[in-house]
Amino acid sequence: MNIVKAKLEDFNTVKNIINTTIRTIYPHYYPVGVVEFFLSHHCDDNIRKGIETDMVLLIDVNGIIVGTGSTQENEISRVFVLPQLQGLGYGTLIMNKLESIIAKGYSEIVLDFSLPAYDLYINRGYSPIKYNKIITPNKDVLCFNIMKKAIISCIDGKINYNNRFFSSVSNTDNGEVSSATIFQYHQNKDMVWAEYNGGDILKGYLIGTSDDKSNLNFTYQHVNQKGEIRTGKCLSTPKILPNGKIRLLEQWQWTNGDNSAGSSIIEESNIII
């Protein structure tokens, strides 16, 4: 299996994949007028122009082209896999390649989602950022969102945590952070800090440093719903998930109260501001 760049002589192949997918899959999600709109949008001229000016990729499986996808600057478009071959991971493979191309020059990826691909994009860490609506010539309505995904950018090979949001996935019983607690991280060189609140926590702050493996060494303090001031220290180890988001595996200890220790997990969330 190979992923190759499309040439003009591949026009009919690209067109066939797009048209076949739209005519077969889209009627299950959209009214007739919207299906016709998609076919018109992906007309011969637009497909040909895309091959000439954009990065259009093809998935070649034993000499058979089974899917296509395009990127222009930091935008992904025209990701289609032949209907009879969907669910076999080809869409994921072409998205991986398109994202890796964009990641070389940009800090985020944008795309317009179609309903058949919505779950794929959500599972890959994309978040809706803008709602749009198009009235088709026969008055059917196409509603869709523009979606965005931040690329895990690095500084000198390290994760850049700046302006990332996290929420709690799990915590031991002696902790006070819960799924209602939201963290906003900031970074300047090796210094990392965050504000957090929600659930049992009225307001909290943490500050620390990032080492050469992007591990985070923090101290933290917050005021809880009881009006108590709690303080502690925490070591967070990052893991990049398949969807591109960051998971932090944390070992922490209170430095007041009972001085007990615990462990927790927080993951990057889809919050957009």
Automatic annotation (TrEMBL):
PROSITE patterns xrefs: GNAT
Span of domain N-acetyltransferase: 1-152
Entry keyword annotation includes Transferase: yes
Keyword Repeat: no
Taxonomic source organism: Clostridium estertheticum
Pfam annotation, one family: Avidin_like
Keywords (A to Z) from UniProt: Transferase
Record Gene3D superfamilies: 3.40.630.30
UniProt-recorded name of the protein: GNAT family N-acetyltransferase
GO molecular function: acyltransferase activity, transferring groups other than amino-acyl groups
